[in-house]
Specification:
Length: 216
């Protein structure tokens, strides 16, 4: 077995299982309309207590290759290190709860829109990213397409929340920005609940970084 794969399976088994299942399920749904229909989130139905399970299963499928690659690349970059940091069951709980919580605003917003459906792991992936930011706000950077340098994680987080909040109200691009926003917020809240000291450590790192800049 490849040493990198073995290391991932031993240090982050939960993240590995989610990663593999999401890719396999998405690929199966690409060529199976019945499976896609059974797994996709339909807020109209869920609000009426039908197919409630799709709140979770919709996070295992994606709209197209670009959607899948973008989410899984982001997930791969953060999830494995995060599980090694916070623990196995904690990571699993964070992921599943964020997946559910990130979809709730969408369910209520589109509860009477029969034609609306959504899918993707974006809410849970956002939660993973923002949980990671709490642990490494200034000593890690995040790359953004078309920007040649990495942005400090905490600055990226602030810009991301501002953008998602704006896009949720004004965008017309068929992207579920509500899931991104509430997934990110869920990741922050759940991480602090699971490990309250992380907030103090986060603030200390931000304070130290600011003082370092002021004394240059």
């Amino acid at each position: 077995m490849n040493p990198e794969i073995f290391n991932a399976l031993t240090t982050a088994p939960v993240a590995s299982i989610i990663f593999v299942i999401t890719i396999i399920t998405t690929l199966m749904a690409f060529s199976n309309e019945t499976l896609l229909s059974n797994l996709i989130l339909h807020p109209y139905s869920v609000y009426r207590k039908k197919n409630v399970y799709t709140v979770i299963t919709s996070g295992l499928i994606h709209n197209d290759w670009m959607h899948l690659i973008f989410n899984m690349f982001s997930y791969y970059y953060f999830a494995f290190n995060l599980e090694a940091t916070i623990g196995h069951w904690q990571f699993g709980l964070l992921y599943v709860l964020s997946l559910i919580l990130s979809d709730l605003p969408t369910i209520f917003k589109h509860k009477n829109d029969y034609g609306y459906r959504c899918l993707g792991a974006s809410g849970a992936v956002s939660a993973v990213i923002f949980s990671s930011i709490l642990y490494h706000p200034v000593d890690s950077s995040i790359g953004i397409m078309f920007i040649p340098i990495g942005i400090p994680a905490v600055i990226f987080g602030v810009l991301y929340l501002i953008y998602c909040s704006y896009a949720s109200k004004h965008a017309r691009d068929n992207v579920n920005h509500d899931a991104h926003l509430f997934g990110a917020l869920s990741g922050l809240v759940i991480t602090i609940i699971l490990n309250p000291p992380v907030l103090g450590t986060f603030l200390q790192q931000i304070s130290a970084a600011i003082q370092s800049l002021l004394h240059r």
